[in-house]
Amino acid sequence: MLISMLDYNDDGSVDPSTIIPLIDGGTEGFKGNARVILPGFTSCIECTLDLFPPQVTYPLCTIANTPRLPEHCIEYVKIIQWDKENPFNVPLDGDDPQHVAWLYERSLERANQFNISGITYRLVQGVIKNIIPAVASTNAIIAAACATEVFKLATAL
């Protein structure tokens, strides 16, 4: 969108008065980033997606045969048991409390079979939706870094 708003001079250079900077920041647990994107000069968000770490996945052999973590039990129920038993005759909906409760109960059963503790309703929700808990201090630091970039741009320092 911001690139489409750029105007170009006769020599093909970007008209500096049409550059609208974008301040981008985000957090994931204890990790975070803040950056300024200048359309036409710096990489856009889409161009840098490969720089972010991949989502955590668990090998199917681990979750099916040798679970060691509560997350392994939850993934097993989510991937294997849901399709096998099809409890509500609909696809899994991580926002449906009945679906989450069913997954929680089955995950708890599986964890007990392998003497694994730590299954909680909240953990089940997090695994289903790939939610990583926010850390307030990380959010505050990244928000401050983004605000600093805005002040730098506003005062042209």
TrEMBL record:
This is NEDD8-activating enzyme E1 catalytic subunit. The keyword GTP-binding does not apply. Residues 19-155 form the THIF-type NAD/FAD binding fold domain. Keywords: ATP-binding, Ligase, Nucleotide-binding, Ubl conjugation pathway. The active site is at residue 61. It comes from the Eukaryota. It catalyses: ATP + [NEDD8 protein] + [E1 NEDD8-activating enzyme]-L-cysteine = AMP + diphosphate + [E1 NEDD8-activating enzyme]-S-[NEDD8 protein]-yl-L-cysteine. Its EC number is 6.2.1.64. It is an enzyme of class 6 (ligase). The keyword ATP-binding applies. One of its GO terms (molecular function) is ATP binding. Belongs to the ubiquitin-activating E1 family. UBA3 subfamily. Catalytic subunit of the dimeric E1 enzyme, which activates NEDD8. One of its GO terms (biological process) is protein neddylation. GO terms for cellular component: cytoplasm; nucleus. Pathway: Protein modification; protein neddylation.
